[in-house]
What we know:
By secondary structure, the protein is mostly helical. It is built from 26 helices and 5 strands. Helices cover about 60% and strands about 5% of the residues. Helix 7 (about 110-120) runs parallel beside helix 9, helix 13 (about 215-235) packs parallel to helix 20 and helix 19 (about 365-375) packs across helix 20 (about 390-405). The N and C termini lie far apart (about 70 Å).
Amino acid sequence: MNPDPFNKKLNEAHGLLRNHNFSQALVVYEKLTRQWPHKAELWLEYGIAAASAGRVDLADRVWNKASELEPRNGDIMLKIGHACQGLRQPEKARAWFEKAAATDPRGINPRMALAILAEQNHNFPQAREAIASCLAIDLRDDQARYFDALLDRRENKIEDAEHKLRDLIASAPQHLYVQYASRYQLAQVLDRTDRFDEAMQMLLEAKTLVRRLGNIEKMLKEYDQEAGQDRTASQSLPKDILRTWGREFPERAREPMPRLAYLGGHPRSGTTLLEQVLGAHPDVAALDEPGHFVTIVCQLFNASPQISGPRLNVIRRRYLEAMRKEWGGNLEGKLLLDKNPSPTAKLRIWLRVFPELRVLIALRDPRDVVISCFFQNIVLNTASANFLSLERTARHYADLMDVWLAVRRWEGLAWMETRYEDVVADLEKEGRRVTEFLGLTWDPAQARFHEKSSKKQMYSPTYHDASQPVYARSVARWHAYEKHLAPIMPVLEPYCRVLGYDLGK
C-alpha cells in the first residue's frame, strides 16, 4: 500500500477536526474507513468527529467497530473513554474506562481514569476503590499516590494530605504532572492551615516546573496580541453601537431563540457559584463553561467580513443546536444560561449575534481574584500562561476588565453586576436580585443549590468548591498575601476604585 494517499487524506481530516468542521470531517473519515477498514485508530477518530457533530448513534457504532477490530487493545478503549469525557458524556466514558481496565489486570492508566472521573462526580468511595486498585498494582506509582493525597484534601483530611504530599515530593516523582500538581496541592493545604509564606513558596516551585511544559514567551505573545485586539475593538466602539446593530439586525429579522443570558466576569470571581445557584431554578437551563460560543459563534463570525442578517441567523442556529444537544433536554419555556468567564472579552461578538442577550457579570475584590487565580493548577494555554506570575495575573485581570468597563457604557445594554461578597453574605437576597434580573422569581431550591451540584459533574476547574454550601473563608483572602501583592497594587488599585472596593480593607 502506498501510504501517501492515506496520510494526505488523514491530514485533511485532522485539519477539519482542529477547525471544528465536523460535518466535512465526517465525509473524509467515511471515505478513509471504506478504503482502510482495518485501522482501529481511524475508527476511533471517526467516532470523535461523529460525536462532535452531534451524531451520537454513529459515534457509538464506529467506536464499537474500533473495539471489535482490536478487542485486547486497552489503549484504544482508554482513548475512546477520554474522547467521551471531553465531549461531556461521563457515563459512556466510565463504561469505556472499565472495558480498558478489563483488558489489562495490571493497567494503572484506565483505573486512574476511573478514579478521576469518580472524583469529578463527587463519588469518593468509587474514587477510593479505583485508587486502591492502582496502589495494589504499584504502591509507588506517582499518579496514584498523588491522587490518594488529593482525595484526602477533598475529604478534609488535611494532616494526612500534607504528610502524603510531602513524602511524594521528597521521593522526586518522575511524572512531570505529579511534580508540579503535588506542589499546587500542598500550597492549598498550607493556605488552609495559615502558613501563607510557605504556600506562596510552594506555588512558585510549581510554576517553575510548569514553565518547562512549553514556550511560555510565545504563548504570552499570542495572548497579548488577541487581548489587545479585544480591548481596542471594544473601547473604540461608540456608546450607541447597540442601536446601530439593532437597526442592521432588527428583531423581526431574527430567528426566534429561547431567552438567553450570559454569565461572565473574570475567572475566580464567583461565576461557578452563581451558575449553580441559578441552575437550581427549575426554569433555568444552565451550562457550565460550554465551548460552543468560541468554537461556533466566534469562528463563524470571524470567518467572513460580511455580517448580514441571514449569516447572523445561521450562527445563532448553530449555537442553539449545540447548546440544546449539550443540555440534553427540552429547552421550551426555559432561560438558557451560558456561564463562561473568558469570553467576557468577546462581548462585542456576543451582542452583535445576540442583541437580546442579558449580561450578568460577577465581580469580586480584584486582589482576591488575583490570589485565587494564582493558586489554580489549570491546563497550560495562552490564557493560563498568565497565571505563572502575579504580574501577568494582574495584567490578565486588567485586560478583561477593561473590556467590561467599556461595554457597560453602551446604551441599551441589559446588564447587571453582582458581587461575590454579597452572595456569600446573603445568598437569598443577592440570589433573588439576580434571578429577578433574568425575569424569574426566586425558587426555594436555589438556596439548596449544593444538593444538586454535589450529584452532577461540573466542568469548571473549581467544581469542588461550588458543590459545597456557601462559605466565607475566601472573602478578603488577599490580606494574608498582602506583601506579595504589593508590587502589583498599582495595576489593581484603579479597578478597586472603579468597582467600589475599599483600598483600606
